[in-house]
Design goal:
globular; about 625 residues
Length: about 625
């Protein structure tokens, strides 16, 4: 298999920017190929696959970006590109169609977000870029990220469009002019039908988490949107996996797409116990403090993703009385050396660091590694937790995750070939009891070593003089040691969303659309997942009749689904009404279209009975021979 010649789009792109594109091994006479040392990758003819040669460091200022974008990246605290970013950004910026394969949470948003900002024309108010995301949460997250990157690019407008928000507000923003639209396929289709979005000036379409959109039943919507956009557009597709339907979409809607795939070697971390806590972002510092109090490590390392977060966390922990300090890329070498000397000597007990600044840290005796932020790449996770468990000793790694990071955690588990177990967030009582146990253990050791004799006479004298007992004195001394900081209302709740949790308690929902409306189970699944944000894999049985549908969802998420689906949601242009069905349902099965044979039982004569009576008059709907 040969290599691409110098006339290819990628090499031409690099030549234009005077970036090196040569190497004696691959550019020898007769090969006609070019190696990309800056990016650590090479392009092969035939497969069109760009593979990572080795894990190399690429700084953002090496990628020929706008000064405004570089300034925004610096404000966000990032120093160097992740593997997928270093490979994808130059290729996407060259204008060719791209398929990017990398796991969730590896920095894919910046991989297409940065090239998007180099593509848009700020002086034009027309829609130029469409980004499709599977859920409203991801659409909001992507829009926020691109806004941060465009902080110093005046005139660039980014708008997330998704179900659950008033469409009138979105239409008003669209009329004002938006260059970049980030939306769920369903809501983008709604705007398409209303003609509130015009695609004639769209030069770039991005499918983010394409495999997840397929799983949620959005394939038809994705293909419709791609068909309606100009044929000469650039199409970029990012996906964690490459199933057959993804490749079919690529063949149909992309031209000679370049496949960029991050290839990593497998690593294991068998001697390190790994746990995670599902937390709300605002509670991270409080929970970190509790864990430090409970485990009481002599030395610990806390990893953050940005320099700003390192600085903020140092200030917060010092304010709570901990001996904490940190290192990141903006610090001078002299400052770093001082911090590291203090950490090695034990003067600093908690070291807070970014991934880049932590390279080369070689300190024995680190008891715990905390992932305050999950890393953007699985390799970084392995490098982080490798700071503990050295020299044959066991180690402990504790990670904080929020929201969609649960998917990233599963990617890390697969990569490390290990199971990371969930743990409940410790309460204030847990912290207090742990501190007390530690104090009592020290008292016991002191008594057994007979080190308290010198104080006995003094204690006896005070007890005889005052009107209190030795028990009162011991309790007062304990109170002085423990302090008042733990005597407050515990406002941190255990926040846990586990897809593997028991879903045997399901609630059956009634939806007023069915087969006659030309709606499929995939459309129902996609609407529920897209509008409510609940992962589609948690949806149970979908039983479709001619004029209505029954859907089973976990009881704990039923109210959220009802609220989201009854907010002017359209499925294929038909407004839907969703309510709890008056039926005793068994635990859901994973079928999508088998008819329901269970007999409906009336429990009340509320509004649902009125709906049945209304339908009874038409005589159109029958079930088990009964009209209702």
């Amino acid at each position: 298999m040969g290599y691409i010649d110098r006339s290819s789009e990628i090499c031409a792109f690099l030549d234009k920017r005077e970036m090196p594109c040569y190497d004696s091994k691959y550019c020898a006479v007769g090969r006609g190929g070019h190696f990309l040392p800056v990016l650590g990758m090479r392009q092969r003819i035939g497969s069109g696959v760009t593979e990572r040669k080795k894990m190399e460091t690429v700084r953002f200022d090496e990628l020929d970006l706008y000064p405004q974008v570089l300034r925004a990246i610096a404000d966000m605290g990032f120093e160097e590109a992740t593997p997928i970013q270093s490979q994808a950004i130059p290729v996407v910026m060259s204008g060719v169609d791209v398929i990017g394969q990398a796991q969730t949470g590896t920095g894919k948003t910046a991989s297409f977000g940065i090239p998007v900002l180099h593509k848009v024309e700020p002086n034009s108010r027309k829609t130029q870029v469409i980004i499709l995301s599977p859920t409203r949460e991801l659409a909001i997250q992507v829009a926020d990220e691109i806004r941060k990157l465009a902080k110093y690019m005046h005139g660039v407008k980014v708008l997330p469009v998704y179900g659950g928000q008033e469409i009138v507000r979105q239409i008003k923003s669209l009329k004002a002019g938006v260059q970049i639209i980030v939306g769920t396929p369903g809501r983008v289709m709604d705007h398409m039908r209303r003609k509130t979005v015009k695609f004639d000036s769209v030069s770039m379409v991005i499918l983010d988490e394409a495999d997840e959109m397929l799983d949620m039943g959005f394939r038809e919507d994705m293909e419709t949107i791609l068909t309606e956009t100009p044929e000469e557009r650039q199409t970029v597709l990012f996906s964690a996996t490459m199933p057959k339907p993804i490749m079919e979409i690529a063949r149909k809607f992309q031209k000679d797409a370049k496949i960029i795939k991050v290839v990593r070697k497998e690593l294991t971390v068998s001697n390190i116990d790994q746990f995670y806590y599902e937390v709300r972002p605002k509670n991270k510092t409080e929970i970190l403090s509790r864990l430090i109090d409970i485990y009481n490590p002599k030395l610990s390392v806390v990893f953050c993703n940005t320099k700003r977060q390192v600085d903020e966390l140092i200030s917060e922990l010092k304010g709570r009385g901990y001996f904490a300090d940190g290192i990141h890329g903006d610090m001078k070498q002299q400052q770093r050396d001082r911090v590291m000397d203090d950490f090695r000597s034990g003067k600093t007990e908690i070291l807070i660091a970014t991934d880049v600044a932590a390279r080369g840290i070689d300190v024995d005796g680190v008891d715990i590694v905390f992932n305050y932020d999950l890393p953007q790449d699985e390799e970084y996770y392995v490098h982080r937790i490798g700071r503990t468990g050295r020299a044959g000793k066991s180690g402990l790694a504790l990670s904080f995750i929020s929201g969609r990071e649960v998917y990233k955690l599963k990617d890390i588990e697969r990569y490390c070939k290990t199971k990371i177990l969930a743990k409940p967030i410790p309460s204030l009582d847990d912290v207090k009891n742990t501190k007390m146990d530690g104090i009592f253990d020290k008292i016991k050791e002191m008594i057994e070593a007979d080190e308290h004799r010198a104080m006995l006479d003094m204690v006896e004298e005070h007890v005889n003089q005052e009107d209190y007992t030795s028990m009162d004195m011991a309790a007062a001394l304990l109170k002085m040691i423990v302090g008042d900081t733990l005597d407050r209302i515990d406002e941190v709740e255990n926040f846990h969303f586990d897809e593997n949790a028991d879903t045997s308690r399901m609630v059956r929902l009634f939806i007023n659309v069915g087969k006659k409306d030309k709606i499929t189970p995939a459309n129902i699944l996609g609407a529920i997942a897209g509008e409510s944000g609940m992962p589609g894999r948690l949806v149970g049985a979908i039983d479709m009749m001619d004029n209505y549908t029954f859907v089973d969802v976990p009881a704990k998420h039923a109210e959220a689904v009802l609220a989201a689906m009854n907010d002017n949601v359209l499925i294929k242009g038909r407004k839907v009404n969703v309510e709890k069905a008056n039926v005793s349902a068994k635990p859901a099965r994973k079928s999508k279209s088998k008819p329901d044979t269970r007999r409906r039982k009336d429990e009340s004569r509320g509004k649902h009975d009125k709906l049945k009576e209304r339908r009874s008059k038409s005589g159109k709907v029958r079930r088990n021979g009964e009209k209702y």
